[in-house]
Amino acid sequence: MKEIIKNTWLYSIARRIYYFLTPDYHYPNPVGSELKQLKRVLYSTNWNSSYSTSGLHYKLEKEFADFIGCNYAVAVNTGGMALQMIFRGLGLKPGDEVVHQVDTCVATSYAILNSFCTPTFADVDMNSFMLNKDELLGNITDRTKIILPVHMWGNAENMSTIADIAAKKNLLIVEDACLSLGAECENKKIGSFGKAAAFSFGCLKPIQAGEGGMIVTNDSNLAKELRILRDWGETTKELGYRDQKHLSWNGRMSEFVASVALEQLKGYPDHLKLLRENVDFFSQYINSIPGLSIIHTANKSVYTQVVIKINPKLFPISKNEFIEKLKTDKVNVWHANFEPINSLSFFSKQEWRNWVLKGDLDYITSNYSKSFSNAYELYQNVGMGINKIHFLHKRNVKALIKIINGILNLKKQ
Question: Is residue 244 part of a domain?
């Protein structure tokens, strides 16, 4: 009986009622016709996008490009693969450097290294938790080819500043937008500022499909090259003849992933509207507590995490103590940004030397040995992130406020 119900419209209604009535909201969850689309793929012959000429990944690409405001989108199997393909598609070679903030996920650096290029690191700004302008300028060398702004946890980078620096230094911009689908800067969606941008549908991302990624660009030639690269470099579809010209990968997205991502994208605007309303409600509360503030940046955030800045001089308990008390009360909480990448063993123990074979190795060693004091302070004492599951319903926010009040012995709001 359960299986029968799952395949009817009654299940869809029951599911929505369940999520509405359950105080402990779940994410990710179906927001459209995911089951219907998955069944459609299952009973078709287009499970893999390799030979499909009418698959759902084409429709996803069109709707995703329209959502971002770009001309082209290329569906791939992960966000990390999206970055690798962009670097290869832009012609980067061993020894070329890509500079980004030091406290993003190591996947960003690994994508650069797996493209045979070299990541270099810049410290962060203590107000935005993103790239520090002076630090960025100080870590651009004659080998730097790309500035890679990482739009952290739903917040958008200051793209006008990044664009000014890129123009003056004759560098390309590639956006790592994996955590921030739908965030805006200067009334434009992120992903539309650089030569290309990478998005992800994996774990902790704004919309999720189990895995999957997307590249957006306004460059038709780059889009064609990326479509070739995602298929082991095979040229038949794009050029009309069979050949392999460049080292490449299997970066294809399955039709199952495309079907889920497509429905998630359709329901995303409504999801985002509710999320922003609930975070606005929470912000009014946080702003009343000395020593706490929410990092929104100056742009429209999508709150993949709600990022909080702690002022240790004003806040009565340490960051670590606050986090542990929140975890005790089942609050899903973590650091705002990641640990500085150069503190990880691959970099600190110089395992990278086995893979970086060209370039100024003395400079790279120096860069990886820096202290990056802002990123360390942010990670140890200042930055904290609360998972967006606590902001998917107003009652979840009220429950979170009650917990924080209890920790700080505050009166009921």
Answer: yes
Q: Which of 228, 263, 298 is the last residue of a domain?
A: 263
| Burial class of residue 290 (count of CB atoms within 10 Å of its CB; 0-12, 13-18, 19+) | exposed
Query: Which residue segment(s) compose the domain that 206 sits in?
Result: 34-263
Angle (nearest 5°) at CA 329 between 327 and 331:
55
Residues 19 and 45 in one domain: no
Q: What is the DSSP letter of 130?
A: S
CB atoms within 10 A of CB 379: 20
* 64, 189 Cβ separation under 8 angstroms: no
Phi-psi region of 173 (alpha: psi -120 to 50; beta: other; left: phi over 0): beta
pLDDT along the chain (413 residues), means of 10: 51 54 67 88 83 81 98 97 97 97 98 97 96 96 98 96 97 98 94 98 94 97 96 87 90 94 95 95 95 86 96 96 96 96 97 95 97 97 96 95 91 47
**Domain total in the chain:** 2
Cα(262)–Cα(209) distance, integer angstroms: 9
Query: Which ranges in 254-355 belong to alpha helices (H)?
Result: 255-286, 319-328, 345-348
Whether residues 254 and 205 fall in one domain: yes
How far is the C-alpha of 73 from the C-alpha of 85, rounded, in Å? Answer: 13
Q: Which long-range contacts (CB under 8 A, 24 or more apart) does 108-111 make?
A: 108/83, 108/148, 108/150, 108/176, 109/341, 110/80, 111/80, 111/81, 111/83, 111/84, 111/87
Residues 155 and 249 in one domain: yes
Contacts of 184 (CB under 8 A, 6+ apart): 156, 190, 299, 300
State pLDDT tens for residues 183-230.
999 999 999 999 999 999 999 999 999 999 999 999 999 999 999 999
**28: cis peptide before it, omega within 30°?**
yes
Task: Look up residue 402 and give its DSSP letter.
Answer: H
What Cα–Cα distance (Å) separates residue 402 from each residue in 78, 246, 405?
38, 57, 5
